[in-house]
């Protein structure tokens, strides 16, 4: 009995101890919050809500920028941001971290910009942004950066099979952008003195876009020519260039337009030393001649006279001809009059050449067409006087 009583007493003591400990623990929990929870008023959320890379696709060794947007998504309180830094294993980050940025209000955002260099191979590489806030709130955000060193392409789109000396030839080039981003400031520069214009500005080219540019080449010698062009463009703020060499073979002029003067007639005019020159001009070439003009080539000994100092013939098709008339006055010892022929080809290029018209037997021509020379008149007077004197003498003897 005694032993049983002791066991029951021990059991009651244990139960009382357990109840006492439970009450004490409950009171402790009610007096302070649990160590594992944070009051709602202390919660804050920092997020990277956007980024922008410029240029969108880098070429190797390009320098670009990355703009990152950080937002405080908390609606009730601000949060302190200690620093923001950018890290990369492949790309070279040129900017230092941002320290002691300060507090960011509820719902507010801020942007920070980092510079980087694509000192890596082509491919997809990753940047990581680390944002450190208060109460050990750290945000890590990674995003890809594409490096693609593909340049713009440039080539010959069209040019004639035959190229001739002193004849203008159009060469059409085409520029293409095989990249995944837009490039700007696209220019094609010519490095040959016989090519015009010296530069063509194309401007911006979007991805997979192409643009044509025309150049005119006028060679002055036969043989092989190599035309050099340089394509310049910008990827972001980075300048790049590509060269193009175009080999061409130039042959002698095929006389597309060949003007020939025929049927020349020279007549003296009333004024001493003045002549009227008439004739025909024929196009014996393979193409039409536009704006044909025939005029007197003036010099110190030759003067063009009104009303036909020059004569406009106009358009001469192949195997066509036109008539002209010119007036010129020459000095006494001049035997040739220069006649200048001007015309334009199909491209509007102006050509000019000079032919010489011979003035033959000018004194004899003047005698036939006008008054007798003074020497002949004097001789006739002497003959007439002699005849009259002989007749008079004969009558006197009778």
Describe it.
The protein has 398 residues and is of the alpha+beta class. The protein folds into four domains: 44-147, Immunoglobulins (Immunoglobulin-like, Sandwich), CATH 2.60.40.10; 153-251, Immunoglobulin-like (Sandwich), CATH 2.60.40.10; 259-360, Sandwich (Immunoglobulin-like), CATH 2.60.40.1230; 372-398. The chain has three helices and 26 strands. The strands form six sheets. A five-stranded mixed β-sheet has the order 2-9-8-4-6, with no helix packed on it. A five-stranded mixed β-sheet has the order 11-18-17-13-15, with no helix packed on it. Strands 1-3-7-5 form a four-stranded antiparallel β-sheet, with no helix packed on it. Strand 19 (259-268) and strand 20 form a beta hairpin. The longest helix is centred in the first third of the chain and has 30 residues, at 2-31. Mean pLDDT is 83; it is low at 18-44 and 361-370.
């Amino acid at each position: 009995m005694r032993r049983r009583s002791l066991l029951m007493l021990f059991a009651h003591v244990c139960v009382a101890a357990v109840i006492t400990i439970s009450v004490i623990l409950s009171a402790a929990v009610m007096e302070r919050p649990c160590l594992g929870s944070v009051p709602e008023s202390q919660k804050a959320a920092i997020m990277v809500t956007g980024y922008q890379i410029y240029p969108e696709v880098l070429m190797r060794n390009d320098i670009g920028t990355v703009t990152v947007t950080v937002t405080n998504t908390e609606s009730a309180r601000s949060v302190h941001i200690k620093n923001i830094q950018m890290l990369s294993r492949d790309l070279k980050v040129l900017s230092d971290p941002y320290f002691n940025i300060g507090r960011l209000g509820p719902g507010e955002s801020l942007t920070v910009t980092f510079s980087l260099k694509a000192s890596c191979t082509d491919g997809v590489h990753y940047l990581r942004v680390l944002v450190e806030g208060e109460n050990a709130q750290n945000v890590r955000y990674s995003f890809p950066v594409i490096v693609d060193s593909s340049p713009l392409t440039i080539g010959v789109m069209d040019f004639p099979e035959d190229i001739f000396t002193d004849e203008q030839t159009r060469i059409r080039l085409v520029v293409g952008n095989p990249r995944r981003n837009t490039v700007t400031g696209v220019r094609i520069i010519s490095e040959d003195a016989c090519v015009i214009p010296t530069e063509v500005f194309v401007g911006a080219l979007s991805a997979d876009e192409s643009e044509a540019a025309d150049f005119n080449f006028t060679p002055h010698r036969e043989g092989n020519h190599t035309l050099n062009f340089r394509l310049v463009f910008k990827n972001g703020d980075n300048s790049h260039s590509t060269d193009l060499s175009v080999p061409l073979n130039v042959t002698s002029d095929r006389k597309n337009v060949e003007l020939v003067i025929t049927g020349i007639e020279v007549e003296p005019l009333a004024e001493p030393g003045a002549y009227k020159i008439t004739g025909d001009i024929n196009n014996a070439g393979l193409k039409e001649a536009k704006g044909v003009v025939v005029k007197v080539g003036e010099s110190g000994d030759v003067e063009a006279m009104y009303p036909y100092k020059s004569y406009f013939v106009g358009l001469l098709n192949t195997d066509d001809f036109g008539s002209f008339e010119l007036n010129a006055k020459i000095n006494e010892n001049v035997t040739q009059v220069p006649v200048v022929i001007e015309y334009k080809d199909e491209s509007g290029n102006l050509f000019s050449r000079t032919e010489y018209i011979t003035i033959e037997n000018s004194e004899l021509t003047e005698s036939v067409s006008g008054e007798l020379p003074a020497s002949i008149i004097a001789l006739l007077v002497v003959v007439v006087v002699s005849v009259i004197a002989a007749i008079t003498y004969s009558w006197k003897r009778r």
